[in-house]
Amino acid sequence: MASASPCACGAPSPSLRCVLAPSLPFASFPPVVRLAARQLLPRRLAVLRPRAASALEPLVLESDDEDGDEEAEEEAGSGLFQGDTWAVERDAVKSPELEVFELEELPEQWRRARIAWLCKELPAYKHSTLTRILNAQRKWITQEDATYVAVHCLRIRNNDAAFRVYSWIVRQHWYRFNFALATRVADCLAREGKVEKCREVFDAMVKQGRVPAESTFHILVVAYLSVPGGRCLEEACTIYNQMIQMGGYKPRLNLHNSLFRALVSKTGGTAKHNLRQAEFIYHNIVTSNLAVHKDVYAGLIWIHSYQDVIDRDRIKALRDEMKRAGFEETNDVLVSLMRAFSKEGDIRETEATWHRLLQSGGKLPAQAYICRMELYAQTGEPMKSLEMFKEMKSRNVPPNVASYHKIIEIMAKSREIEIAEKLMDEFVESHMKHLMPAFLSLMYLYLDLDMHEKLEQTFTKCLDRCRPNRILYTIYLESLVRLGNVTKAEEIFGEMHKNGTIGTNAKSCNIMLRGYLSAEDYQKAESIYDLMCKKKYDLPVDSLEKLQSGLLINKKVVKPPKPVSMKLDEEQREILIGLLLGGTQIESHAQKGVHIVNFKFQEDSNAHSVLRTHIHERFIEWLPSACRSFNDDSQIPYRFSTIPHAHFGFFADQFFRKGQPILPKLVHRWLSPRVLAYWFMFGGVRLQSGDIVLKVSGGNIDSVERIVNSLQTQSLTCKVKRKGRFFWIGFPGSNADSFWKIIEPYVLDTCTGSVMQESHSVGSDALRDSHTDYEDDTQRYDKETEE
């Protein structure tokens, strides 16, 4: 945080303390400072690493003794990734030494005075004022002078000011790349948890053709791992991989362990995608002749057990290596083995592992019973699976959500209607959450048995207790079409299409097309056909033949689908503008004039999870074929990109300049209610107080004021604040209510409550990266700050 007064933390170090003297006539300076005669510095000034408290402190283990680390690993507890051995050492590797001149070495007294004054005053100022002061010194200041000022800011632990001074230096015409300074600025920023600023300096070093120092790689990985919720795990893995492949460095053991722990801290369904990275970390530990922790073996076996195709040979090799290392297989490993064996239907190995688990004498986990249920379901013995469920209760192991899901699914697939319904009632009465998978299992059962009345009742119950999704509506739509109730089916399909939370897909469109064809309503069938052609959905041959024969009777011919001229409709354009205002990125393609839109959503945000599915459905015709063939919404990735297309060039030119986000000059004309709604859902948050805040990606104060003036024409009064590199537009009190009334018709239903208090997910990087700068809407920025 910028200091309140220059005398607090803004004052220079003891070597720069001075007495005041009459001022000299140079621009923008208060009284000149005169250096004291006594010499307090050594002949060269070496920069020490700051020891300020930071967000990384919990991950820091103050030790440089690697042998001691390995001994501690042997004494660690048996739990998965427990103990100090998994803590990351922040100062494990040293940065290149950075030296700057001593002020007394400068022959000109006026230069010493000016540099001393800058060291005293600059840390107390915010971004725009600091830049204006530095701009006023261009006639005399050199890179060495400015480097001294940046180093002083690092020494007094004002890393924000150091970064601003460094950013100003690199924009000057006399700038020559200083690897040691860039390394030290990046390291200090990462230690303080300012990962975006650190990454900016890191990328600049790479663009200069230099390999960043080992310390920069190490500390940046630690900083990414320290981000709450594991939102930057992918970035941490990228830097870790570059550290080894590009830098040729050998990370310390604690860095390997901490990154591995982050990979296996995800749920099983998510962690299974991290297998290659986990194996890469294990390979690096082994090839570096470091000790492999027993929980690394356990974690690898755990990830392998969740794979769709089980690699028995690899699991056996890991078990053998674990045995040679002198580690016993814990209950966690045994459960992972049961999961792997049960997926393959191996009764002998599963039961043998189960008996070993019983002999261990520990508390039996519910997951072990679930593995046995799945095993006997695969071997065609569903009633034995039911016995496993009852045995779990008899052993005082309380059934959890996953066990209810599994047993209801098994009973539904075996068509044991009464048992499935009884278990479902028991599940509902337990007041556990996540009832949807169990409801879907029942509805699939009723659909297979043509019990449409019970299916409709279950659909209604599910709507009362769960958040609706596309699968639920699609099953009900199929039931209505089979009954021949096309009118009701048309109503449900229209509700799906209008409700952005649910949406339609190829399967629902094919069901509706089949319904119209069975009712011989060829005009409406043709409209569905046109929609499917536009969205590039696959069309069954038999449905196309029926449509052609039906139109021929009416003397009309349906032509085979032609290549559709790709063009964003009005809704897609407004959605894209709202997302771009919130921070969505567009990148240029190798082909000139062609661009790609990169959609990126936060995994720990419920609002972004809903928005991800909706955006995927709305832009499905613009996605590559590999991103369009998902059977389940849960398979949709949190990051996906469009195909390269020239139609995105307009938005790239308007919202980006030289790769940096800006605000279009006509943005105030594009702020429709739908644009504001998607801006809010993607880059906004509604606070507990009821106030609404929107993050502005890119732009300066002038362009933000155009947005504010446009909102005021809609009777919306708002405030503007700057935090770091981002502006934030806030709607306090009654203005938030007025803003909500405008956007509410376009806000997705399930996003209404999810956006509450998710500021950690939306714009969190800006909040975390820039808690020092705060300016109101009256602050004007000098034109030179945009250079």
- Measured by DSSP, the beta-strand proportion falls in 5-15%
Largest β sheet strand count, sense and barrel closure? 4 strands, antiparallel
Q: Record the strand order, biggest sheet.
A: 10-11-13-12
Taking pLDDT < 50 over at least 5 consecutive residues as the criterion, the unreliable ranges are 1-92, 757-787
CATH architecture of the domain at 570-755: Roll
**Radius of gyration (Å):** 31 Å
- What is the strand tally? 13
Assigned CATH superfamily of the domain at 570-755: Homing endonucleases
CATH class categorisation of the domain at 570-755: Alpha Beta
Principal-axis shape: globular
Mean pLDDT: 80
Q: Share of helix among residues?
A: 40-55%
Under CATH, the topology of the domain at 570-755 is which?
Answer: Endonuclease I-creI
> Ends: how far apart?
25 Å
Q: What is the structural class?
A: mainly alpha
Count of alpha/pi helices: 35
Description:
By secondary structure, the chain is mostly helical. Among the domains are: 92-249, Tetratricopeptide repeat domain (Serine Threonine Protein Phosphatase 5, Tetratricopeptide repeat, Alpha Horseshoe), CATH 1.25.40.10; 468-554; 570-755, Endonuclease I-creI (Roll), CATH 3.10.28.10. 52% of the residues lie in helices and 6% in strands. It has 35 helices and 13 strands. The strands form 5 sheets. The protein has a 4-stranded antiparallel sheet. A 3-stranded antiparallel sheet has the order 5-6-7, covered by helices on one side. It has a two-stranded antiparallel ribbon with strand order 1-2. Strand 8 (656-657) and strand 9 (660-661) form a beta hairpin. The longest helix is centred in the middle third of the chain and has 14 residues, at 452-465. The protein is globular, with a radius of gyration of 31 Å. The two termini are 25 Å apart. Mean pLDDT is 80; it is low at 1-92 and 757-787.
